[in-house]
Amino acid sequence: MSSSTLPSSSNNMKCDVISPCSNQINIDSPTTSYLIAEAKVNGIRGLVLLDTGSGLTIISFQHWSIIGDKSSPPIPYTGPDIHGPEGSSICPVGWVTVDIAIAGIIIQHKAILAKNFKHLILIGNDLMKNIGIVLDIQVNKMWLRTKPNLQYDISSDLSNAGRLDV
């Protein structure tokens, strides 16, 4: 499952864009734009990546060592290879069931543990569709379809994306 349609060889590519209103503009990073939100996973608050292009919820294997339930080992992953937002294999190692609190609700949900994954937690479309999350990127808000008056902040600022409250 990939959240990016770019081939992996183009991820580090530099692009030149010429605008009719200005001189040449150099873009040194890919055009990937992340959405993040506050959530709790297994009772630990932090920021999660919201990825509507991913069909799965993914947790970094290293991060799992902090938030995981030691009494419940992961179920080995035996499916096809999975590609992450950057286009490379995430090296899936297992399935886990986690408690996710987001947008005012708590749900038990399955997630993939991945060894080659630079984000801590990615919330995929599997969870967002399941609970009915609506994203409005113009006003940086999310809400549940069943509770449109209870809105929660989202952001595209990754400067705090590694923040964890443990």
From TrEMBL:
Name this polypeptide is given: Peptidase A2 domain-containing protein
Organism domain of life: Eukaryota
